Amino acid sequence: MRSVQALAVGVLSVLAISDVSFAGEPKSGGIFRIYHRDSPGSASIHEGATYSLNVPFMPIFNNLVMFNQHIAQNSIGTIVPELAESWAWSGDNKTLTFKLRKDVKWHDGKPFTAADVKCTFDMLMGKSQQKFRQNPRKSWYDQVNDVTTNGDYEASFNLKRPQPALLSLLASGYTPIYPCHLSPAEMRTKPIGTGPFKFVEFKANESIKLTKNPDYFKKGLPYLDGIEFTIIPNRSTAILGFVSGKFDMTFPTEVSIPLLKDVKAQAPNAVCVVEPNNVSTNIIINSTSPPFDNIDIRRALALSLDRKAFIQIMFEGQGDIGGTMEPAPDGLWAMPKDMLESIPGYGPDVEKNREEARKLMQKAGYGPDKHLQIKVSTRNIAVYRDPAIILIDQIKSIYIDAELDVVDTAQWFPKVARKDYSLGLNLTGNAVDEPDQSFYENYACGSERNYTNYCNKDIEKLFDQQSAETDLNKRKKLVWEIDKKLQEDVARPIIFHARTGTCWQPYVKNVTIMSNSSYNGYRYEDVWLDK
Amino acid sequence: MFAYIVRRLFLMLLTLFGISVIIFVLLRVVPGNIVDILFDAAGFVDPADKANLEKELGLSQPIVIQYLHWIGGLLRGDLGYSYVSEKPALDEILPRIPITARLAGLALLFSASIGIPLGVLSAVHQGSRLDYVLRVVSLSGLSLPSFWLGLLILMASVSMFGTMPIFNPNPKTWMEAFAIYAVPAMAVGFRSAALTMRITRSSMLEILRQDYIRTARAKGASETSVNYHHALKNAVLPVITVIGIEAAFLIGGLIVTETVFNIPGIARFLVEALRWRDYPIVQNLVMFIAVVVVVVNFTVDMLYAAIDPRIRYGD
Predict the structure, then answer these.
(1) Which residues in A lie closer than 8 A to residue B276 (C-beta atoms)?
(2) Which of A207, A181, A185, A227 has the alpha carbon at shortest distance from A60?
(3) How far apart are CA B288 and CA B294, in angstroms?
(4) Residue A504 neighbours by CB under 8 Å, 6+ apart
């Protein structure tokens, strides 16, 4: 049944591409010029954890499967085949088998085979001789026992237990297939893929250039002759460059709401969209030492938040309130509104919440005459600093006087790891709108990215339960229950989920900005320029 | 004179050695290294991976060994590899030098060619409207931060011409090639021009009150001859000193200007390398800048003697 579904999705996707090719009358040619917000550390997507890497290098690669690039909301239902022709789950849902395309070549002319799939995932699981310098998503494959091949064109993922989320993880822009015949070091500097564009050069702090792959296995694609990213860290210069027509598109999801107004004023013809990017701004609390080892103070903190005020100040109202999972309607796993509002601190009456918070503070020994003195630590980046300042202002209302402790980026995680903070303001981006990725990465006992060391074995059992659940509706209810519990436990209070803008010139066609992830929508194989 | 030059050369080497030690130690005193930065972007990753990478990059060795390794390589012409791009540091640095050199050269040229004549004009017409206007202009030049001036130029350029002179490695026209260097050079050189103008003015005013100027006038020399032949020649010494110092300080202004105009020169590269704690790039770039500054200072000292025959360096 599942393989039939997969086949149907595959056929639909082929039809979708055909649709784009003929009905839209795309024109071939032209260089797609985008400014890039910073210089990525390398060209190896597997070794990075920022979409600064995905945006320029995703067009070089293919995944086994990927999210349909023209449906903004990524979900299991929008996954389409890429290097795989089809996929099928075994009856016990513990083996996921991919039939691979036979007409795919790497950019250096070597044939793509199942061995490349095995190589890639062996390296990701830390099972191969060759190692990545960094392997930030190793935990994604914790439930994968091994990857086996059957001939050159079939690869199977053998799981320890059912994990329906695996397919979504494989569809992420973070999961390209790498060639066996290149070392991780070579992939960091001169990557080779099977994708619509070939790597030309990466000049640090200057530019990244890609050129059309004429042998791309999807006939007729890509339409563009190439893509050029000019690295412009100065936001004002970059926006002026876009406005003056030097660039066809801004860096995706990098235009803030206030800047968007400027762009629209100076380039009224520009097409701009605002989408959530599945990045939450949250508070990390050091609950291992005073004063936040006291649950009452942690709860008071959660009750003091006026989330709407954050969103109004920072995004002129264009942000969302939610739990760990991205809020609806773009988020797939968001709690229903009434359930969300039943969580302490999420109710609409902020003053009532704060009154309750003040009582909790008084119970802990603080009050109008005895304020709690703390520091709010955060990274020295505007998107971190600005909400931290608002937070400091808000917690004054519950007898907490805080001082801003701005931490150099290089020192942020070492400081958090040393537990050298009491309260921190943090941003958490999710590569996929998928509870497995979010829960295990951020809240599982012992997870490297569980900065607060929150550990609740009962909840962890629920993590596993939802992860193995194949019935979508049952799984959703479990996810809501977990999310609610995480917020009630003040594990990592979520303040808001941001929305950001992307603009492009009116002649740029076929760009879709994803609405529940910033990491998956940059294949650009059927983007074209109507010039 | 020869002994003086030898002594200066020895002092130059000593200075460079001191700078090499200071920059090397300071870089390692600053919290965090490349491994912290790389892993910061990924959140926490396995500490064992982190230790392996530190070992691979030689960061786990004692600091003295690391220093000797660097200096040894430097003397052999091996600048090491960039931690970030994994390319030879020399290949990363060399292509960027001409870009910054062109920009700095043009900025200094702009500074001298605007600052000196206007300074002379201002001094010669002391107290006139022209003098007041020029003094206001020079004060503005000293007060305007170059990043702000750069942004103003870009905004004006977009609103008036619909384009902007940001860097393009392959300019299509001669005008574009000129604009991508000349406009930022003006932005960064404006402050230097203002300073040069003020120094020229005050130096000229002092010289114009000297007895020998009065004598020249009494002998019937024309005003042009008095101002430019007799006065300026003697007033120019402090101006040369200031231009020499400005050449060294220019790197600070260039960092901002290269960022605003998106010019891939060494100044912006240095800041990015510092952000990544890319030691081989930072160390070698700082040493390069130090060599330039030391050589410029030496040249300025030598120029004194060439311009003013009364100056002779004793043995």
Answers:
(1) 41
(2) A227
(3) 10
(4) A248, A249, A250, A270, A271, A511
Q: What is the pLDDT of residue B41?
A: 67
How close A399 comes to chain B (CA, Å)?
32
Q: What's the pLDDT at A8?
A: 46
pLDDT at A23 > cutoff 60: no
Residue with tokens 């120094």: B199
Mutation target for A interface from B59, B94, B166, B269: give the one with most A CBs within 10 A. Answer: B166
Residues 208 to 227 of A: which have CB under 8 A from any B CB?
none
Beta bridge partners of A146: A158
Q: Which two tokens stand for residue A231?
A: 């690295």
The sign of the dihedral angle between the CA atoms of A100, A105, A107, A110 is positive
pLDDT on residue B165:
84
Q: What is the pLDDT of residue B43?
A: 67
3-class secondary structure per residue, B75-135: HHCCCCECCCCCCEHHHHHCCHHHHHHHHHHHHHHHHHHHHHHHHHHHHHCCCCHHHHHHH
Provide DSSP, A261-311: HHHHHH-TT-EEEEEEEEEEEEEEE-TTSTTTTSHHHHHHHHHH--HHHHH
Q: Do A413 and B154 touch (CB under 8 A)?
A: no
Chain A: give the shortest CA distance to residue B147, in Å.
11
Question: Residue B103 and residue A41: Cα distance in Å, rounded?
Answer: 27
Chain A residues with CB-CB distance to B85 below 8 A = 42, 189, 202, 204
- Tell me which of A31, A42, A134, A199 to substitute to probe the interface with B (most B C-beta atoms closer than 10 Å): A134
C-alpha–C-alpha distance, residues A439 and A320, integer Å: 20
Question: Of A34, A518, A502, nearest to A272 (Cα)?
Answer: A502
- Nearest by CB to A448, from B43, B264, B272: name it: B43
Q: How does residue A6 score in pLDDT terms, banded at 50, 70 and 90?
A: very low
Structure tokens at B36: 């912290």
**CA angle, residues A133, A134, A135, in degrees to nearest 5:** 130
Inter-chain contact A244–B163, Cβ cutoff 8 Å? Answer: yes
Residue matched to tokens 């409207």: B129
Among B45, B84, B268, B281, the strongest candidate for a mutation testing the A interface, having the largest count of A CBs within 10 A, is B45
pTM score of the predicted model: 0.87
* Phi, psi angles (nearest 5°) of residue B237: -60, -55
Q: Does A105 touch chain B (CB under 8 A)?
A: no
Q: B71 CB near a chain A CB, below 8 Å? A: no
DSSP classification of residue A175: -
- Residue A431 sits at φ, ψ, to 5 deg, of -70, -30
Show residues of chain A in contact with B163, CB under 8 Å: 244-246
**Cβ neighbours of A34 in B, within 8 Å:** none
Residues of chain A in contact with residue B49, where contact means CB-CB under 8 angstroms, are 133-135
Report the residue of A39, A45, A139, A205 to disrupt the B interface, i.e. the one with the largest count of B CBs within 10 Å. A205
Count interface pairs A-B at CB distance under 8 A.
Answer: 124
Question: What is the per-residue pLDDT across B152-166, written as a single tens digit (0 to 9) for each?
Answer: 999 998 888 888 888
E strand or H helix at A410, and its extent? Answer: helix A409-417
Alpha-carbon distance of A166 to A177, in angstroms, equals: 15
Contact B269, B158 (CB under 8 A): no
Q: Which of A312, A320, A322, A304 is nearest to A394 (CA)?
A: A304
Residue B149 has pLDDT above 60, yes or no: yes
